[in-house]
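Agenda item 2: iron/sulfur cluster complex prediction
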Amino acid sequence: MKDKLLHKLKVLAESAKYDVSCSSSGVARKNNGSGLGNASAWGVCHSFTEDGRCVSLLKVLMTNVCLYDCAYCVNRRSNDVERAAFTPEELVEITLEFYRRNYIDGLFLSSGVLKSPDHTMERMIRVARSLRTVHGFQGYIHMKTIPGASRALVYQAGLVVDRLSVNLEIPLEQDLKRLAPEKDHQSVYKPMHFIQQGMQQSLEDRKKFRSAPRFAPAGQSTQMIVGAAGDNDRDILHLSSSLYQRSGMKRVYYSGYIPVNTYDARLPTTTVRENTLKRENRLYQADWLMRFYQFSATEIVDSGQPYLELDMDPKLAWALRHPEQFPVDVNTADYAMILRIPGVGVKSAKMIVAARRHGRLTLSGLKKIGVVLKRAQYFIANNELPHFTIQEATPEYVRRALTEPASVRPPSQQLSLGF
Ligand code: SF4
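Presented output:
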């Protein structure tokens, strides 16, 4: 590859690294001579296709030139950073070359806003269309829709890519306007709506004609930045919950704010990175509870408890706030309640329901199924356990036993269970 093109690739892959919709590009690690390979914070990331396969994607921007001046973005107009732009032909060439060499399974394409949202989208569509129709490229393509793009262009994009996404960035509209004056939520919700309509239309067309084109078959996703503005976890999770009600919304990604523009007084001056990462992780766990554990956002956070607890996962936090719901008898409780027992995952809950049809479940049976008894012991009723559930032990004791085990002496009546 020519040096000039390689240099552009470096600049534009580096500029794309803050987008977490593909989640594995955040680590840089050098080989010290004793190992194999290097990890780079930019370049190739991973994503999941419609059928659940994990694929490696070339993650780049079409250009990092941008008309807009979003306070939290490294590519904002007023930043003095090196700028570059691919021509559609160059990006097609790079993608094909990497694909043929087996470096990647597809392309994750985003962009700064060059001239206008529609002008930028047109250039991105030229890349995807050329890959698909001129070169017969069958790899995965995820394209970021530019906020404010027109319906016609969103529709054209959906016909040549697997996934489309539009970033919400900042959860509360007033904060978005303050930090990114050229954007508003409407400019994001509109393309989201166009994508949804395109997917529905395609489903209906395909019912009539099997050969009708598919529209963004891997659905749509979005991303929110956590900690750049005054939003709390309640704001974020309620918004995510309403986004998941939209058909075709596959994933909401949470990106802990990284202070790249520390000179901007509108942004938080201090951010403890460790806490931001913990918060991001807790939000993903809460998101998981909403999608797979039948929790609503209001159960996880409410006006009295607007932030997730950082020192424990949200499912344990909920159980400790609701001792009246426990202990649960795994031999008789319904599936929804079994899912709520800390230490029981979706797979274990399904296995419990299936296994108890053939006889009573014992502690060793639960262990074989994969239940984490160290956690679950306080929340299940079982006559093999000493009588020491959250009801007798108190939520405070259980909290300390599970979050700071070294500081808690086991009560004398608790037997050793060997786990
Ligand atoms: S529009 Fe996108 S690339 Fe441009 S400044 Fe805002 S966040 Fe950055």
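Discussion summary: The chain has a mean pLDDT of 88.
Owner for follow-up: CH.
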